[in-house]
Design goal:
With 383 residues, this protein is an alpha/beta fold. The protein has helices at 23-35, 44-47, 72-80, 104-117, 132-145, 160-163, 178-190, 208-212, 225-240, 271-283, 290-294, 301-312, 316-332, 339-345, 351-362, 366-372, and strands spanning 13-18, 39-41, 60-64, 85-87, 100-101, 122-127, 151-156, 171-175, 199-204, 219-221, 250-251, 257-258, 380-381. α3 (72-80) links the parallel β3 and β4. The two termini are 21 Å apart.
Length: 383
């Protein structure tokens, strides 16, 4: 099918048009732009000014027009341009153009799995505003956290100060982003609750200047913005060269959680069981013998094994296998890694042990999991 856009010059001019700024997204775009010798117009990062009609002339646009309050002037400007456009956000503003998106349910799932790995059984999602990003991140957090025996609470920020003393502890709290997670942290600290021992707090976006210098350094989901920016630029490049737009959004999965002090705890009251769980988390990639775990216990290994099982619902061996499988799942997101490499880096030793454990736990092989992983609804992974 012939493209409706004119062919760009050898050195195309691309506008980065965003109402909301994520500098790591811009970093990913700029990496691609440098590789392909683009002229990158990104003055809106500092001026926040939408170009006037006829003021900008170029060959393509990468845009983020806003979720809570879409920028109407920016939307109007984009609609008047006869150039390819790629959006770096989920739908909601009426622009029917190709998208490269982070599935926000996966962001919430990553936050919950981080807390589940720390043995939390009480979870809270703190609401701030009603928008698609918060709804989807909250839904992903709830789905992953809602396991047998766990409790889940949805709390409005304005109600949090009065509800804190009534909530079960220890509890893991999640907010839509790092800025809002800091508000949650202030509410906890101001009322004398310990972070992370009573309330472990996790945000999203991994904005380092917010996370590192918080009252308690903040753990956060790494949303993979650099990858999103790079893939958005790659898609725009293909569109400018006349390729047909993809029928579905391009999916960029979050890249795990950057753990900091705000979740640096284990929700187990017994010291020996805590020691064993921390040992397994720190050494699951290595050959693990019970004798190594026994070093440093206050009481006997048999007692520690009994308390560990009653506290976590799993034996130490089952927990070791779970940790290895979770790590293997994250490695399988990289299609370039061989199954043998995934097995070795996850602590299974060889591919046959990985395949057997994976099939027993999931009902499918690692290869089948890799083929299907990340398919949420009808979105597709990045190429």
């Amino acid at each position: 099918m012939k493209s409706k856009f004119r062919r760009p010059p050898a050195r195309p001019r691309v506008l980065v048009a965003q109402s909301w700024w994520q500098d790591r997204l811009l970093e990913g775009i700029s990496q691609y732009a440098a590789k392909h010798d683009w002229i990158l117009d990104c003055e809106m990062r500092w001026s926040h000014r939408v170009p006037l009609a006829g003021e900008w002339q170029g060959d393509g646009i990468i845009a983020y027009v806003g979720i809570t309050k879409p920028e109407k002037r920016l939307i109007h400007f984009i609609r008047t341009q006869r150039v390819p456009v790629v959006l770096a956000q989920p739908p909601g503003e009426g622009l029917k153009v190709p998208r490269v998106i982070i599935p926000h349910e996966e962001v919430g799932r990553a936050a919950a799995e981080h807390l589940l790995g720390l043995n939390f059984r009480h979870f809270g999602f703190v609401e701030f505003a009603d928008n698609i990003m918060e709804r989807e991140r909250g839904a992903g957090f709830r789905k992953a956290a809602n396991q047998t025996g766990n409790t889940f609470h949805v709390i409005r920020l304005r109600d949090l100060p009065t509800r804190l003393r009534l909530l079960p502890r220890p509890m893991g709290l999640f907010a839509i982003n790092d800025l809002n997670a800091l508000a949650v942290m202030r509410a906890c600290v101001d009322r004398g609750f310990r972070v992370p021992e009573e309330f472990a707090i996790i945000g999203a976006d991994n904005t380092e200047i917010l996370c590192k210098f918080a009252p308690v350094p903040l753990s956060s989901v790494n949303c993979n913005f650099e990858k999103q920016g790079f893939e958005a630029a790659a898609l725009l490049h293909r569109l400018m060269r006349g390729e047909a737009p993809p029928p579905l959004p391009v999916l960029i999965l979050p890249d795990g959680v950057t753990g900091r002090r705000s979740t640096d705890t284990l929700a187990i009251p017994d010291a020996d069981a805590t020691h064993a769980l921390r040992f397994l988390r720190d050494h699951f990639r290595e050959p693990v013998r019970m004798a190594r775990i026994a070093v440093g216990l206050t009481h006997s290994l048999r007692r520690a094994q009994s308390v560990f099982r009653s506290s976590t619902g799993r034996t130490m061996f089952q927990e070791l296998t779970r940790l290895r499988l979770e790590h293997a799942k994250s490695l399988l997101l990289n299609p370039e890694l061989k199954i043998t490499t995934v097995a070795e880096e996850s602590g299974f030793g060889n591919r046959y042990h990985l395949i057997r454990a994976f099939r027993r736990a999931t009902g499918q092989t690692p290869r089948a999991y890799r083929k299907n992983v990340g398919r949420i609804g009808k979105v597709r992974p990045a190429r």
